[in-house]
Amino acid sequence: MYEPFGSRLSEAMPTQRSLDDVVSMTPLEIAESSHLVISAYKELVQGALSIRNDEYRKPMLDVLRNPQVTFPERYAEGEGAEVARELKEAGYLERLEDFDAVITDDHLSPQPFISAPQSHEDWYNCHPGGLAITCAVNARLSEYHTATYQHMYGIPVDRDLALATLAIHEYPKAWIYAWNSEGGYRKEPRLHGGNLHTHTAHVVAEMIHRGAPKEMVIAVAACHGFGSAEFYEDDANRETRVRWPGYQLVASFLHSGSILARVDAVEEGYVERGSDGVLTLAPQPVEIWNGNLSDMNWPYTIGAAHTHTFPLLEEIAQTTFGAAPGSKPFKQLKNYVYAQVGQIALYELLVRDGRDAVESIVKDLVSPK
Predict the structure, then answer these.
(1) Which end of the chain is more exposed for a tag (fewer CB within 10 A), N or C?
(2) Is residue 235 part of a domain?
(3) What is the average pLDDT across 325-347?
C-alpha cells in the first residue's frame, strides 16, 4: 500500500509549545519558527539571484525584501475618484464605493513577504508563510515546464521570466491580506466581478509604475488568466465544446491595471483594440504562459489538502484543545500547524497514516494541557 511517513515527519518538528504560547505569537513569529517557510523564502531569494536579466531579477528581489505597493503615488489630489469612475465604466468595479477597499492607506506599510498568507482565509495555504511556500513550489514547477518545452519541442524558452513572474504576481497579497488581532486577515477587495483577481490588477499597475519590461507586465497579468475554460454543449452534434477565454481575461487584467497606473493600455502596447472596439491580447509565447502553467500549487492544495485537513483541525481543536471553530485559539492553532507541516504534508499524513497520526503530530507541536 502507500508508504507511511508520520514518524519521519515528526522528526522534523520543532519543540512542543503550549496553546497559550501559540495563541500569543505574531504572524511573523509563526513564519520565522517554521523551517518549511524559511526554506521556501530563502529558495525564492536564491532563485532571484540566479536570474541573469537585471530587469527581471531586481523587481523580484525588491518585492521579496519589501512588498510595498507604490503605484498610488501617481495620483494627484482627488484623482482616486476618476480612477474609480473609469474602472466602473469599463465594467471592472461594481460600485464606486468599493474603490475605497481597492487602495487602502497602508499600501506603503505591508507585512513582510515571509509572513503573508497565500489565499482567502478558507482556501489554501491560509497561514503565515503560505505565500512563500506557494511561490517556491510554483517557481520549481516553472523550471520543469521550461525544460519540457525546450527538450520536447526545441523552443528556446527563457526560464528567468517565469521564475520572476511567479513570485511577483502574488506579492500584493502581503498588503491585501493584513493580519488582524484574532488570527485572521483582511479580505481581498472586489474587482472583475469578485475578490479573486484584484491583486492581479494591482501587480499589473505596480509593474507599469516601476517601469518593468512590457513582457513582464503581460506575464504577471497572464498568471491567472490563460487556464480559464468554458464548456458548452453543441446541440446539433451533442458534443461538448470548449471556449478558451484566457486571452480576453488577460487583456482585461492589463486594461484594469493600466487604469490603476494611469496609462493607456493600447498606446503602451499591452493590448490591441479591434475594429469592434474590443480589447484583445496579441499571441504570446510560452515564456508568458509558463506563469499560468506553473501556478499550480492551488488545485491539489484546495481540492484535496484543505478540503480534508481544515475540518479535521476544527474537530481536533474542539475535542482536544477546547478551541471552538472560528475562535482565535483555533485560528492560531491552524496557523501554527499549517506553517510547521504544510497543508499538503498534513493531508498526505492523513491519507497514508490515518486520522490518529494527524492528531498525534498536532499534539507533538502544541501541548493540549
Answers:
(1) N
(2) no
(3) 97
Calculate mean pLDDT across residues 162-190.
Answer: 97
**CB neighbours (10 Å) of residue 145?**
19
Give a three-class secondary structure readout of the chain: CCCCCHHHHHHCCCCCEEHHHHHHCCHHHHHHCCHHHHHHHHHHHHHHHHCCCHHHHHHHHHHHHCCCCCHHHHCCCCHHHHHHHHHHHCCCCCCHHHHHHHCCCCCCCCCCHHHCCCCCCCCCCCCCCHHHHHHHHHHHHHHHHHHHHHHHHCCCCCHHHHHHHHHHCCCCHHHHCCECCCCCECCCCCECCECCCHHHHHHHHHHHHCCCCHHHHHHHHHCCCCCCCEEEEECCCCEEEEECCHHHHHHHHHHHHHHHHCCCCCCCCCCEECCCCCEECCCCCHHHHHHHHHCCCHHHHHHHHHHHHHHHHHHHHHHHHCCCCCCHHHHHHHHHHHHHHCHHHHHHHHHHHCHHHHHHHHHHHEECC
Answer yes or no: is pLDDT of 308 > 80. yes
What pTM did the predictor assign? 0.95
Owner of C-alpha cell 488577460 = 250
Indicate whether 245 belongs to any domain: no
In a domain, 330, yes or no: yes
Confidence of residue 7 (pLDDT cuts 50, 70, 90): confident
Q: How confident is the model at residue 258 (pLDDT cuts 50, 70, 90)?
A: very high
Q: Mean pLDDT throughout 66-95?
A: 96
Q: Could you give the number of structural domains in the chain?
A: 1
Asked if the structure places residue 85 within a domain, the reply is yes
pLDDT for position 230: 85
| Res. 224 pLDDT band, cuts 50 70 90 | confident
